[in-house]
Amino acid sequence: MEYFGIIIGAIFVSNIVLAQFLGICPFLGVSGKVSTSVGMSGAVLFVMTLATLVTWLIYVYVLLPLGITFLQTISFILVIAALVQMVEIILKKVSPPLYQALGIFLPLITTNCAVLGVALLTQSKNYDLLQAIVFAVANAIGFGLAMILFSGLREHLNLMMVPKGMRGVPIALVTAGILAMAFMGFAGMV
Amino acid sequence: MSMLTVSGSPHIHGDSSVKKIMYTVVMAMVPAMLVSVYFFGLDALRVLLISSLACLFFEWLIQKYLIKAPVTINDGSALVTGILLAFNVPSNLPIWILLIGAFISIGMGKMSFGGLGKNPFNPALVGRVFLLISFPVQMTSWPAPKLLFGSITSSPDAMGGATPLGFLKEGLKNQTVPELMKDMPDYAMELIGFMGGSLGEVSVIALLLGAIYMLAKKVITWEIPTAYIGSVIIFTGILWLVNPDMYISPVFHLLTGGLILGAFFMATDMVSSPISSKGQILFGIGAGVITILIRIWGAYPEGVSFAILIMNAFTPLINRGFKPKRFGEKIQSA
Questions:
Q1: Which ipTM was obtained for this model?
Q2: Is A148 in CB contact (< 8 Å) with chain B?
Q3: N or C: which end of chain A has fewer CB within 10 A?
Q4: Are residues B199 and B282 both part of a single domain?
Q5: Cβ distance of B67 and A164 shorter than 8 Å
Q6: Which domain holds residue A73?
């Protein structure tokens, strides 16, 4: 039941994109097509879970014993960036198909605030390791849900004669705003 | 199949048009409008008039001066949006809030996408949800029904101040359903519309009259309302059977709140709902489940508007998933 709460909370109630407004750059940047947003969501799922796992271990076994938790943010940034680069190199060697599938998205995620955000949120909520991983996976699913919904809407909008001044990014922002308003209905559920 | 046969002229002219459909919807809303004026007095008339006129005005203003498109305020779509917006607000809403709502509905919900036929979300609901989030106090302080003619003889506690759904949500924090039922209007009164609430949602009978008219005129199809209401009945029925102290009966969920209004008048919006019949059923089920999730576990007492907006967002994906088979395409055998 506890994990159920974490999952529902992360996917719907405080959706990482639509309620916490993290990871907006890929949300707006690569949501032009449903297929690319599926790829991006897969990459985020992969990196977010891994990054949360590693940063949790670093926090508990390095930062806490040494009493340097104030270095949390900067060390997490470093760790995540290095981790993603390393994963990319390993993937390229070990599993070229997966590397191909994730493509450009993998390096892009290095600087994704959603990944860092989830790693930091995990610590502020004092989750244990299993909770942290469930939280990370659920957040990645929430990201994917928002991403795929939004890309469906944008593909639909591409077929419409949107007024000149609103074409492209402006109408995408309006749509994202309405989507975020709709998701506010889930408030208070968990 | 004879309908699909291509033949030479003369052909019969199918005379449906945007204008005709929209004014059919307006006609279908007349019973609910009359009931709202009867129960909430001249306040209701004021809200209806201002909302409709403001929607028409903003549509004209934006089309004429901002996007310089042909002005289409005569096609009735802005009027439908205006009436639906009025149906979704309490009758004592200050005028300036109503004007903001009309502006958001038409400006943000409809015109920024290019006008009728292009909006992925139902414009009236965009306005309603915007108002609900921005002005939660004004949007949820409901006046007690004050009759245009005659007077109220008996007045249960729940009549003024809160909708039955809001009353239930507050009360469930420390009481059980059977205890609360005593203080609420009975089902017969809820059926007629004798309770607190938004203008258009109170009277189930008047809304059903309009819905039958629209179904007869084939402006809406049966799929979305049936799937929506059916999933609500099944979902709340299961919860009710499991624990009648905690969860109220499906009848209550049907008669109160905006379910009937939403299912027949807003979820069936041609622009923002799926095209195929299977897609529409999925749309209805999704909206029903989200509505009940929000009603029972969410912070808001009513979830119809949020549920329909969320399912509107799913519509492009549903349309992708339920493409009709192209002619000549091989049907996969199991």
A1: 0.87
A2: yes
A3: N
A4: yes
A5: yes
A6: 2-184
CB B184 within 8 Å of CB B158: yes
Domain count, chain B: 2
A67 touches chain B (CB under 8 A): no
**CB contact A161 to B (< 8 Å):** yes
Of B88, B97, B133, B127, which is closest to residue B110 (Cα–Cα)? B127
How far is C-alpha B30 from the chain's CA centre?
15
Q: Does the CB of A185 have a partner CB in chain B at under 8 Å? A: yes
Q: pLDDT for B62-97, tens place per residue?
A: 998 888 888 888 888 999 999 999 999 998 899 999
Q: Which pLDDT value is given to residue A136?
A: 94
- Three-state DSSP state, B58: helix
pTM: 0.88
Q: Which of B134, B142, B129, B127 is nearest to B92 (CA)?
A: B142
**Computed over its alpha carbons, how large is the radius of gyration of chain A?**
17
State whether A178 and B299 contact (CB < 8 Å): no
User: For residue range A121-152, what is the model confidence (pLDDT) as tens digits?
Assistant: 998 888 999 999 999 999 999 999 999 999 99
Cβ–Cβ under 8 Å, residues B200 and B26: no
Instruction: Name the domain count of chain A.
Output: 1
Residue B77 CA, chain-centre distance (Å), reads 15
pLDDT at residue B154, as a whole number: 47
Q: B66, exposed or middle or buried, with CB in 10 Å at 0-12, 13-18, 19+?
A: middle
Task: Let me know if residue A52 belongs to a domain.
Answer: yes
Question: Does residue B287 lie within any of the structural domains?
Answer: yes
What digits encode the pLDDT tens for the residues B103-147?
Answer: 999 999 999 998 888 899 999 999 999 999 999 888 887 777 666
